[in-house]
């Protein structure tokens, strides 16, 4: 029997692909956001509101990850931005090589802001770097306030937590202070936004965050 | 089950290294997994079995070296007290911000394999 020391990162292939994406996006000055949440937290709806607010100001594009159907990409194309659907056929997350392929095959152009909407899942997408500038996790008020502690990996890594569907707060038992406290304990530097795509609450703050992150990236 | 994807990468890297070394069958594959990676050792080993069953590496063993994260507080130093699986970033003693070191390991450390030349050797 022969023994060999290997000492390689297991996800080296994904990390190399993510690094090559980061170089590409650095050169083109593209701000890249990796959106992660449970299914049904409102990722696509937040993106629709974002496209509505920002498409006149910046060139936008989206990559949509789902197990099946082109529905999400269709929703964003309808608003006039290029969107590429990645069908994972059962896999629970996107990886960097899929993002590279989406760029090579799709007609995404050179956007100023690229949104990558990951497969709805709070666990697996956390492990895969997609070359993004930062991760955003969404948590809708109907999901229950103990989610940050139950899924600590993503809530401790996401630079921004967007709480969605705030218009439903009067109808559900969702303790906002408890959620803020949990996120603060997991991720002391993380930002928290309270939003509703329906009432418009917090959307200005979200757009301002994107705008200032984009200009920070451009000025290096 | 991202463990399946990760086990697949381990298998690919392991086979690649073995073939470069002239091997034909994997015996043992040793990996380091940090406790902040969200990878469950037990599920990873289960995934390994699923992937290697029916292949020429059937019966090979995946060994996981578990790597805990170290918690450091500016006031209290090294803080050992930590509930398993807890990711709290505030010091349980003084409520200060904790810095975490390590626990991000996701590495293929070592493999052993047999070659055609010495199939009988231990």
Question: What's this entry about, in short?
Answer:
Chain A contains eight helices and eight strands.
User: Radius of gyration of chain B in whole Å, from Cα?
Assistant: 19 Å
Percent of residues in β-strands of chain A: 15-25%
Give the strand order of the largest sheet of chain A, numbering strands 1, 2, ... along the chain.
4-3-5-2-6-7-8
Share of helical residues of chain A: 25-40%
Provide the structure class of chain B. Answer: alpha+beta
Largest sheet of chain B: 3 strands, mixed
Number of strands of chain A: 8
Shape of chain A: globular
How do the helices and strands follow one another from N- to C-terminus of chain A? EHEHEHEHEEHHEHEH
The most extensive interface between chains reads:
A-B, 31 and 39 residues
E-strand count of chain B: 6
Structural class of chain A: alpha/beta
Distance between the ends of chain B: 34 Å
Give the termini separation of chain A: 52 Å
């Amino acid at each position: 029997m022969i023994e060999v020391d290997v000492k390689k990162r297991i996800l080296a292939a994904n990390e190399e692909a993510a690094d090559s994406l980061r170089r590409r996006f650095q050169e083109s000055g593209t701000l890249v956001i990796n959106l992660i949440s449970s299914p049904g937290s409102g990722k696509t709806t937040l993106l629709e509101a974002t496209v509505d607010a920002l498409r006149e100001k910046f060139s936008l594009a989206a990559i949509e990850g789902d197990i099946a159907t082109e529905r999400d990409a269709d929703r964003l194309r309808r608003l006039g931005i290029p969107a590429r659907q990645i069908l994972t056929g059962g896999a629970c997350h996107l990886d960097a090589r899929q993002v590279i392929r989406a760029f090579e095959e799709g007609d995404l152009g050179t956007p100023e802001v690229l949104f990558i909407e990951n497969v709805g899942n709070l666990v697996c997408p956390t492990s895969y770097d997609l070359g993004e500038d930062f991760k955003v996790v969404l948590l809708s008020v109907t999901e229950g306030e103990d989610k940050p502690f139950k899924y600590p990996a993503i809530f401790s890594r996401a630079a921004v937590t967007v709480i969605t569907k705030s218009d439903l707060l009067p109808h559900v038992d969702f303790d906002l202070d408890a959620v803020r406290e949990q996120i603060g304990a997991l991720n002391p530097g993380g930002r928290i936004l309270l939003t509703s795509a329906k009432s418009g609450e917090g959307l200005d703050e979200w757009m301002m965050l994107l705008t200032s992150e984009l200009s920070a990236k451009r000025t290096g | 089950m991202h463990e399946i994807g990760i086990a697949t990468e381990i298998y690919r890297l392991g086979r690649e290294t073995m073939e470069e070394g002239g091997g034909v069958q994997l015996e043992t594959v040793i990996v380091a997994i940090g406790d902040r990676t969200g990878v469950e050792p037990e599920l990873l080993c289960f995934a390994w079995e699923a992937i290697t069953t029916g292949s020429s590496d059937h019966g090979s063993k995946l060994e996981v070296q578990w790597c805990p994260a170290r918690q450091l507080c500016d006031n209290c130093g090294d803080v050992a007290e930590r509930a398993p699986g807890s990711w709290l970033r505030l010091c349980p003693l003084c409520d200060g911000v904790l810095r975490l070191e390590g626990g991000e390991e996701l590495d293929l450390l070592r493999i052993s394999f047999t070659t055609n030349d010495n199939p009988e050797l231990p």
